[in-house]
Automatic annotation (TrEMBL):
GO BP annotation list: mitochondrial protein processing; mitochondrial proton-transporting ATP synthase complex assembly
GO MF annotation terms: metal ion binding; metalloendopeptidase activity
Enzyme class, UniProt record, top EC level: hydrolase
Annotated protein name in UniProt: Mitochondrial inner membrane protease ATP23
Gene label: Atp23
Domain of life: Eukaryota
Length: 184
């Protein structure tokens, strides 16, 4: 998957190499949660009882790898700072493919103007509420406070990858980032 390949390479370049047998765990999970990132162990948990399709698993892996990338490069305070959590959830919803047109149509949610931003905001709020015992108002305020900066932080993709083709282009661009300055 080009999303995952780019994120794994970006993690490695940031000094946080991911090992499949150490940093991924398949478990049965409660409720309708599909996955999670455990900051204490730097481990991605995939909820095998709630993931039914390869495309869904790819999105979950990408979403959680974005959290791992944020954890590596930004030293996110997951437990005490709800704005840090909100920022990473915004980035994960924005960059993982969670809010593509096809996924939104499958959820019977779609609009024309500004729908991607609305989807990212709503999914970030839902994710915060799923992992922290905070009020909906607290989650909404945290997302609203950091939305613009975090929505526009497109690292390591450099663009919002709306499709696998976009993700492949982003991966190719990522691989060539230092190509022209390396010889200087």
């Amino acid at each position: 998957d080009p999303y995952a390949r780019l994120l794994l390479e970006a993690l490695k370049q940031s000094g946080c190499t991911v090992f499949n047998d150490r940093h991924f765990s398949c478990e049965n999970c409660d409720g309708c949660v599909s996955g999670g990132f455990d900051a204490a162990t730097s481990q991605i948990v995939l909820c095998q009882n709630n993931i039914r399709q390869q495309s869904h698993m790819n999105r979950v892996v990408t979403h959680e790898l974005i959290h791992a990338f944020d954890h590596c490069r930004a030293h996110v305070d997951w437990f005490k700072n709800v704005k840090h959590l909100a920022c990473s959830e915004i980035r994960a919803a924005n960059l993982s493919g969670d809010c593509t047109l096809m996924n939104e149509i499958a959820r019977f949610k779609f609009g024309l103007k500004g729908h991607h931003q609305t989807c990212v905001r709503d999914r970030a709020i839902r994710s915060i509420l799923a992992v922290r015992k905070v009020s909906k108002e607290t989650a909404e305020k945290a997302v609203d406070d950091v939305f613009d900066a975090c929505f526009n932080d497109l690292e390591p993709f450099g663009r919002i990858p709306h499709s696998k083709a976009d993700a492949k282009r982003a991966y190719r661009d990522f691989q060539n980032r230092d190509r022209y300055t390396a010889n200087l």
